[in-house]
Amino acid sequence: MSEGGGADRVGALALSHFRSHRRTRLTFDGRPVAIHGPNGAGKTNLLEAVSLLSPGRGMRRAAAEEIIRRPEAIGWRIAAAIRDHEIELRAEPGQPRTTRIDGKAAPQVALARLLRVLWLVPSMDRLWLEGAEGRRRFLDRVTLSFLPDHAEGVLAYEKAMRDRNRLLKDGVRDPHWYEALEVQMATHGAAIDARRRDALTRLEAAQEEGGPFPTAALALTRPEEDGVTGAALDEAALRDALAGSRGRDMAAGRTLVGPHRADLAGTYAAKGIEARLCSTGEQKALLISLILANARALRAETESAPVLLLDEVAAHLDADRRAALYSELRMLGAQAFLTGTEPDLFAELGANALHLCVTENDGESHTEEVAP
Ligand SMILES: Nc1ncnc2c1ncn2[C@@H]1O[C@H](COP(=O)(O)OP(=O)(O)OP(=O)(O)O)[C@@H](O)[C@H]1O
C-alpha cells in the first residue's frame, strides 16, 4: 500500500466477553481487513468494537448492557493500540461504559482526537427514507471527523437543552430560569450549525464528478416554523427565537427551535432527484460516494485517512464498482474493515488486505487469519 501514506489505524484489538467474542485477539498492519464467515458468526461484532473506539454509542447505538456477552454476563472489555496509545473501554453489568487512555480515566470525547472512524452499515440503507434523526447523526459523524471539538459542543448543547426541557415540563414561567440556559444553547447551537455547514462544504468539494459512484448535492435544512430567518443559525437570532418560543415549547413539552431540529437534504446531483426517491442501489451508491469523499477530504487535509467500517458493502456492488472501491481504498491507504459472507468477494484484494475468517461454535466466535 505504498500509495497510501499515513492513515488512522488500529494496531491491535483485544475483546473480552464482548457480544459473541469471549476472547479475541487480533493484530493489524494497516492494510484493509477483509472479514468473511457465515451469517451470525460475529463479523459485524468486530466492526462494532472498532466503532466504539470513537465517541458515542458505536455503529449499532447499543447500550453497554446489550454488549455484555451472554450467557456469562460478566463485564466486557475492548483494548486497542492506536499509534502509541493504549485505549481500554469496559463496562461491568449495571454500570456505564468507562474509557481509559494510557491507563488513565478519560472522557469518551477524547477518543475523537486519537482516531477518526467512519462507517457504512446495512441499517443506513434507509437513511434517506426514515426520520431526520439518522441523517443528523450521519452529518454529525462527518462533522466530528473534520472537527473533533464537535463532540464536546454537541454534549454541552444537549445538556443545556435537557435542563431547559425540564423547566418546560415543570411549567416554570419565570424568564430568569430560562435566560442563562438559552444563552448557552444559542452559543453552542450556532457553533454546531457552523461546524456542520463547514463539514458539508468540505464533503461536497471532495466528491468526484464522473467517478464510479454518483455525487450527491447536500443541504442543511431546518423546519420552517423555527422562527429563525436566514440559512445559518445566527447566535443572537437563535437566542431570540428560543425566548420567543417558550410558550409554544411549553405546550409541546420540548424545545422546538435549534440545531437538533435540522435535517440533511440529499439529491442525486446528475439526475436532480431527491435521494429518498432514488433506487435502493442508487441510495447505497450515494452513501459510498459520501464516505469516500469524507475519507479523501480528511486525507487531503491531515495526510491521514480515517478508519472505514464497510459492513456488507462489497456484496451489494457489481464487479466494476467493487473494483473501483478497492482501488480507492488502496489510493487512500485507509484501514478499511470489510465484511461479507463469501471469501470470493475479497479475492481481488489479494495480499493488499489482511483476510480473516470468523466462525461460530457453541455461541462463541473464533477469528483466524487466512490466506487470500
Ligand atoms: N450480547 C451478546 N452475547 C452473546 N452473543 C451475542 C450478543 N449479541 C449478539 N450476539 C450474537 O452475535 C451474533 C451476531 O454477530 P454479527 O452481527 O457480528 O454477525 P455477522 O457475522 O455480521 O452476521 P451476518 O452475516 O448475518 O450479518 C449472533 O449470533 C448473536 O446471537
Describe this structure in a few short sentences.
It contains 9 helices and 15 strands. It has 372 residues and is of the alpha/beta class. Adenosine-5'-triphosphate binds next to helix 1.
What does this 3D model show about the protein?
There is one protein chain. The protein has 372 residues and is of the alpha/beta class. It has 2 domains: 1-116 and 304-372, Rossmann fold; 127-301, RecF/RecN/SMC, N-terminal domain (Glutathione S-transferase Yfyf (Class Pi), Chain A, domain 2). 36% of the residues lie in helices and 22% in strands. The protein has 9 helices and 15 strands. It has helices spanning 43-51, 64-67, 132-146, 150-169, 175-206, 235-244, 246-252, 280-302, 319-332, and strands at 10-18, 21-27, 33-36, 76-82, 85-91, 98-101, 104-105, 117-120, 216-221, 263-268, 273-274, 307-310, 336-340, 354-361, 364-370. The chain has a 6-stranded antiparallel β-sheet with strand order 2-1-4-5-6-7. A 6-stranded mixed β-sheet has the order 8-12-13-3-14-15, sandwiched between helices. A 3-stranded antiparallel β-sheet has the order 9-10-11. α3 crosses α5 (175-206) and α4 (150-169) packs antiparallel against α5 (175-206). It is globular. It starts with 9 loop residues before the first strand and ends with a strand. Mean pLDDT is 95; it is low at 1-5. The chain binds adenosine-5'-triphosphate. It comes from Jannaschia seosinensis. Keywords: ATP-binding, Cytoplasm, DNA damage, DNA repair, DNA replication, DNA-binding, Nucleotide-binding, SOS response. One of its GO terms (cellular component) is cytoplasm.
